[in-house]
Amino acid sequence: MALRDEIDKFKAGLTTSYAPFIDEAQSKGELYIFQPYDMYSEENHEAWRKLFDRMRPRWRRYANEWFMKGIEALSLDPERVPRLEDVNGFLAPLTGFRAKAVSGYVPAFMFFDCLRNREFPTTITIRRSDKLDYLPEPDIFHDISGHVPMHTHRAFADALVRFGDCAHTAAEHVSEIADAHVRAKTLSSIIQAMARFFWFTVEFGLMQSSDGLKVYGSGLLSSFGEIQHAIESPEVQRYPVQLEWLINQSFAIDRYQPLLFYVESFEHLFDLVDELDTWMRQGKLNNVAPGEPQISEQDIQSFLTAGNLANK
Domains of the chain, with CATH numbers? Predict the structure, then answer.
């Protein structure tokens, strides 16, 4: 294949590294969009096929049973990028959740507020079929095959909604702080705590089962290499979840995780989110340990704006 033909092949469609439709939406400030399904190229569908096919045996071995039931309940086509309207047709009757197409990064408060409203911000682009292993940003394979099958489980879905409630608690909590500098610093700490909680549970969580530890975190469920590493590698430390550890533990996104936590059940996860909200109201998240992730000004402003609107 000539170099020009190869470049044109990967430029077509809705590819994470090149998607004019997404560029245009972002240039117009459009965050919530529709899925232009006919724009997917055969190369995009090939990427989905490769990703789905190589993950299936690892899901069967390492994923929790509810994930496998979720994959079946969604009737995902292993050959084609899924249509969000089809996914939602199966998902919404089960838990009320819906996949909601977005053009890119969703500011923190808006993301959590979507969860509160049983909406999951979903990326519609997909990685190149020759670059399957790692992306620093999500794609539709991560979002739909990693996250959404778990949304078919009622207790897990309710935990996500409760997590969305925490964002409103945070906005209300900091709105009572008069000093603008203290308010922003406090909010940054709270968002950091929430991000760490989300990372170590929703993205990289493990769960006890009768067959030992299983995976329910989407970051692991969509990673061919790390899902096995998380369960089998002697290099990984695995501990029963403790809230004080979650909110004070830094993490890096560009490497396999050396530290993971496990819950007993999704009801246990819900109780942890409930406890997180209580700690927030008590001020226990106002000054968590420094480190990653760094909180952007955009994320801080999204919470401050929500707090201001709530007080009007």
Answer: 3-310 (1.10.800.10)
